[in-house]
Design the sequence.
């Protein structure tokens, strides 16, 4: 298995809802990432997990809450989002360290209404 | 000033043309990635470079560390090459898991 699988592919949620995005990989990668991409813009790093520990949080609002329950799974819990949080949320993984490449998931297209 | 600059931002070419996309960066890096993103889709990693040149099929990527510059070339371009091509760098931090810093992307359209 050489893929990063993200679910759901599309999500519409209200501003009072709580939802979660899921990312899964079975390549043995020990680093996992969440990126946010607005339309026609490059992705922006949100969080990095290294060996299941949060190593980078790019000053993301607390309405986004990451979780890494095990080395294969990364979640992003969403609560009280705003319409401006509508974006493509991309997950990626890498074996560890800069000498190795990244594998990206196909993303979750989130719309907040 | 953006740490990663790409040019051109938009490029339309005819099928069969030789395509060059350029990337310049202003920081010390550990590695540079060329990525491809189709409309509405996820991102595919094409190359990771820390020196020299790599080739895969019709795609060639080069990097000059001294000049802080990289190029992506597409030979015999085809309409299926139409996509956004993104240059992204891993800034030097001595190792560990590091996020990517992205250029703004080059929107390439290859017309039949």
Sequence:
């Amino acid at each position: 298995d050489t893929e990063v699988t993200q679910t759901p592919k599309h999500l519409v949620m209200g501003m009072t809802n709580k939802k979660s995005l899921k990312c899964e990989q079975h390549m043995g990668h020990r680093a996992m990432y969440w990126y946010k991409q607005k339309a026609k813009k490059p992705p922006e790093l949100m969080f990095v997990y290294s060996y299941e520990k949060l190593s980078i949080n790019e000053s993301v609002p607390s309405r986004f809450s990451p979780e890494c329950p095990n080395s294969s799974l990364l979640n992003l819990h969403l609560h009280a989002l705003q319409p401006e949080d509508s974006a493509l949320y991309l997950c990626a993984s890498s074996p560890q360290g800069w000498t190795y490449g990244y594998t990206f998931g196909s993303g979750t297209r989130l719309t907040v209404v | 000033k953006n740490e990663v600059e790409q040019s051109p931002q938009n490029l339309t070419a005819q099928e069969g043309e030789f395509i060059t996309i350029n990337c310049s960066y202003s920081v010390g890096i550990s590695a540079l990635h060329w990525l491809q993103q189709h409309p509405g889709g996820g991102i595919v990693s094409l190359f990771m470079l820390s020196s020299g040149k790599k080739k895969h099929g019709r795609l060639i990527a080069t990097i000059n560390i001294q000049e802080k510059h990289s190029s992506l070339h597409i030979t015999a371009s085809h309409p299926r090459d139409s996509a956004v091509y993104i240059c992204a760098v891993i800034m030097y931090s001595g190792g560990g898991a590091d996020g990517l810093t992205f250029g703004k992307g080059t929107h390439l359209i290859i017309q039949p």
